[in-house]
Write a structure and sequence with these properties.
It is a single chain. This protein has a single domain, classed as von Willebrand factor, type A domain (Rossmann fold). Helix 2 runs antiparallel to helix 4 and helix 3 runs parallel beside helix 8. The longest helix has 16 residues. A 5-stranded mixed beta sheet has the order 3-2-1-4-5, with helices on both faces. Strands 6-7 form a two-stranded parallel sheet. Helix 6 links the parallel strand 4 and strand 5. The protein has 267 residues and is an alpha/beta fold. Helices cover 40% and strands 19% of the residues.
């Protein structure tokens, strides 16, 4: 009996002496920015993206959106993707204008263009894992993905989208519907509808298409405000460019790639 009591006493000492894991930092939003740097993007387009996000982060509108939250702080990370992913700015806690300025400065400090294929699906899975393994606990969790073409590498985009949304994460889209450089050969006239049907998902998911690079910074600022603000927008394409089809082939990118590959290597 004495031995049992001693064992119980030692077990209690072990429990109380074992340090508890550090509590996660609570934020209004965990936001992953996934930005396309695949081979269809020109160097000018890549620079416009970095500068556009930096300008948006310095804006009064984005700061006001952060202040509108219950906790008045968000966690954000910036990742460039193609067939792989590169973390440009790791997770940052954003509460003040100085925090936003530091993020913008880091974002534009270096520039390493990438020339590869387009895997939206693997970027989404990467973004999900970034959220699951950070030190923040968000009231909302959002992945924002931008790109100028459909998925053409990795797992099917619908499978990745459904996996991420099932974890309670909202996916928003910023389809780049411009015609410049190598992107013209992969261009989809209805890329916004591809994003709506195949990429975005979750509560309040939305798409904001960019039709001209001159509008990119404004679109990014609007997108960030909608994502950060306390009340999310209704699911929609903003604006609706085309009448939505009954169905959409979410493997269109893979099929275009196969056709191009057969053309390049045909005798």
């Amino acid at each position: 009996m004495l031995r049992v009591v001693c064992l119980i006493f030692m077990a209690c000492l072990f429990i109380f002496r074992t340090p508890s894991p550090a509590a996660a930092t609570e934020v209004d939003l965990e936001l992953v920015l996934l930005v396309d740097v695949s081979r269809s993007m020109t160097q000018r387009e890549l620079e416009i993206q970095r500068q556009g996000y930096a300008a948006a982060l310095r804006s009064d509108e984005v700061f006001a959106a952060i202040q509108s939250g219950l906790l008045q702080r968000v966690a954000m990370t910036y990742v460039e993707w193609s067939n792989s992913q590169d973390v440009i700015v790791d997770w940052r806690l954003l509460e003040t204008r100085d925090d936003l300025e530091d993020f913008a400065v880091t974002l534009t400090a270096r520039f390493d263009p990438s020339l590869r294929r387009t895997s939206i699906s693997e970027a989404l899975i990467f973004g999900w894992r970034r959220i699951e393994n950070n030190v923040f606990e968000g009231l909302r969790r959002v992945i924002d993905v931008s790109g100028d073409g459909p998925n053409n590498l990795g797992r099917p985009v619908l499978r990745a989208r459904d996996t991420v949304v099932a974890e309670g994460i909202t996916i928003n889209g910023l389809p780049l519907m411009t015609r410049e450089g190598m992107g013209t050969q992969w261009h989809l006239d209805d890329l916004d509808l591809y994003y709506k049907a195949c990429v975005i998902g979750g509560p309040g998911a939305f798409v904001i298409p960019v039709l001209d690079w001159q509008d990119f910074a404004q679109a990014v600022r609007r997108k960030l405000v909608l994502e950060i603000a306390t009340v999310p927008p209704p699911a929609q394409i903003v604006p609706v460019q085309y009448a939505p089809p009954v169905e959409y082939d979410c493997l269109i990118g893979e099929k275009i790639w196969e056709q191009r590959e057969r053309y390049w290597y045909s005798p």
